[in-house]
Structure to design on (206 residues):
């Protein structure tokens, strides 16, 4: 750890630190691998269990009567994206107190690394969904997922950890764009099309 200490930055350590598979590793990806795996599993369960339940409650027949399996997948992915935005914006809040002048090449702390790891787990899940349903999401969303995974893992070199909270705060826009896309997908006209994510969904119905 360099002179820019964890206490001076956020005053917090990762609550999952003691669960590390490699607690003494100087490699941050190994030290926080358990958080990446946990995050991936969490979002897969959210997609498989929680998202269909919430969509049935929120959209009712507009969701349950969907015959196109890809459109139903898109509904569920929208819900997972919203869950991730809420989780991400909640856990990143303490990192916003990290001074921007800290060394972007050497600075790291346990909490910021946890934020990066949880986000990496989500984007790895997102990448697997884009690859699995490439017909639905195409090269644009797949490229976005690849870039996001790269950035999150790069921050565990470490690199630019003092900025990680500022970078991820853009997730605050996800609930509004997601709800717009999902609502648009629920209309009869949108349900006749093969749509690729919330951006194209919104454009289609506007």
């Amino acid at each position: 750890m360099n002179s820019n200490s964890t206490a001076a930055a956020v005053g917090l350590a990762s609550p999952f630190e003691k669960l590390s598979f490699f607690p003494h590793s100087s490699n941050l990806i190994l030290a926080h691998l358990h958080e990446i795996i946990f995050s991936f599993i969490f979002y897969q369960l959210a997609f498989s269990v929680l998202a269909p339940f919430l969509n049935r409650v929120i959209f009712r027949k507009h969701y349950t009567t969907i015959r196109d399996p890809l459109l139903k997948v898109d509904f569920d992915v929208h819900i997972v994206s919203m869950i991730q935005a809420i989780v991400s914006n909640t856990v990143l809040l303490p990192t916003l107190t990290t001074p921007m002048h800290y060394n972007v090449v050497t600075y790291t702390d346990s909490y910021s690394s946890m934020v990066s790891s949880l986000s990496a787990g989500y984007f790895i899940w997102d990448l697997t969904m884009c690859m699995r349903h490439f017909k639905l999401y195409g090269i644009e969303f797949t490229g976005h997922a690849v870039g996001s995974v790269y950035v999150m893992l790069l921050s565990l070199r470490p690199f630019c950890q003092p900025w990680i909270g500022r970078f991820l705060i853009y997730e605050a826009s996800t609930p509004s764009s997601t709800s717009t896309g999902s609502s648009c997908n629920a209309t009869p006209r949108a349900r006749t099309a093969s749509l690729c994510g919330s951006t194209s969904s919104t454009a289609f119905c506007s």
Q: What stands out?
A: Confidence is low (pLDDT under 50) at residues 1-9, 186-206. Residues 33-59 form the longest helix (27 residues). The CA atoms of residues 155 and 161 lie 6 Å apart.
